[in-house]
């Protein structure tokens, strides 16, 4: 693995501001909605996972995963 | 300071860190900082113009209307020409300052191209953790590290006091970077003067800044929010894309190997 591919979540025109908190949250929800709609194996959801992992701090993702497991996630899944 | 001391002082001053008695800005590393420096010079032109003009009027008035020279003051209450002039000119000058200022402000805000990579800079009391998550294939963080300021009593020879950190942020040069700034406890900030960036790190909020470092080098910054006793430093090291690739894969391989 010599050359690393530089690729990340693109700029999203729904979130043009400095504050990107909702960008991260939306991408996280989009991924889980996509999985819910298309099943675990669907490859088209993988990009949303990459986006939210790029944008969200690891700590946030861990907390949301825990909340989903306990059924107390605050977002519309 | 001895002669050798002076010599040492001049040869050892790091190029992209604050210097003792520094008055101007640090050398620009990003187009944004270049814009800031240029705007500063633009505004300074008007500043000096106004300063000279106002001082001249002031000194002239003191000289000509001194009570000994001119015991009976003139009672002029009207002067249409001068009133028009002193209304028009002060309203044009701010316009000349405002136009480049707004142009710079909005160009800094705007993300023109898609960033090539994202780095998350998370402030803690008192260190910073950085996450490079573009290469992750699961929610487990694979490339995360903490960056602590080197304490006052043990910098190595040539290191700057309270500026150096143990793990520098390595970024590729000439690449559009997105930096997501946030905090895990109290408000911190992420500021690197030579890149023209100063961004508050607020817990629960992700602030995005985009920079593109134009030359390879080591850039020093410090927390710019009163966050507590050990106000942490920031060191950004820009390397070429090729070197960046090998740095990242060196960090990734041992860790993914363990997992």
UniProtKB/TrEMBL annotation, chain A:
Check the record and name the InterPro entries matching this protein.
COX6B-like, CX6/COA6-like_sf, Cyt_c_oxidase_su6B
The main location class comes to mitochondrion
- Provide the Gene Ontology terms for cellular component: mitochondrion; respiratory chain complex IV
Q: Which keywords, in A-to-Z order, does the entry hold?
A: Disulfide bond, Mitochondrion
* SUPFAM superfamilies recorded: Cytochrome c oxidase subunit h
Spell out where the chain crosses the membrane: none
UniProt keyword annotation of Metal-binding present: no
Annotated localization: Mitochondrion
Query: What PANTHER family does the record point to?
Result: CYTOCHROME C OXIDASE SUBUNIT 12, MITOCHONDRIAL, CYTOCHROME C OXIDASE SUBUNIT 6B
Summarizing the function annotation, the protein's role is: Component of the cytochrome c oxidase, the last enzyme in the mitochondrial electron transport chain which drives oxidative phosphorylation.
> What protein family does this chain belong to?
Belongs to the cytochrome c oxidase subunit 6B.
Protein name (database record): Cytochrome c oxidase subunit
Q: Which organism is it from?
A: Daucus carota subsp. sativus
UniProtKB/TrEMBL annotation, chain B:
What remark does the entry make about the cofactor? Binds a copper A center.
Family (UniProt): Belongs to the cytochrome c oxidase subunit 2 family.
Give a GO cellular-component term. catalytic complex
Intracellular or extracellular location(s): Mitochondrion inner membrane; Mitochondrion membrane
Q: Which reaction does it catalyse?
A: 4 Fe(II)-[cytochrome c] + O2 + 8 H(+)(in) = 4 Fe(III)-[cytochrome c] + 2 H2O + 4 H(+)(out)
One GO term (biological process): ATP synthesis coupled electron transport
**Organism of this sequence:** Daucus carota subsp. sativus (Carrot)
- Family matches, as PROSITE patterns: COX2_CUA (PS50857), COX2_TM (PS50999)
Keywords, alphabetical: Copper, Electron transport, Membrane, Metal-binding, Mitochondrion, Mitochondrion inner membrane, Respiratory chain, Translocase, Transmembrane, Transmembrane helix, Transport
- What parts of the sequence cross the membrane? 43-63, 84-106
> This chain belongs to which protein, by name?
Cytochrome c oxidase subunit 2
The cofactors it requires, by name, are: Cu cation
This protein's membrane topology, according to the annotation, is: Multi-pass membrane protein
Q: By its UniProt entry, which CDD domains does this protein fall under?
A: CcO_II_C
Q: What is the lineage of its organism?
A: Eukaryota, Viridiplantae, Streptophyta, Embryophyta, Tracheophyta
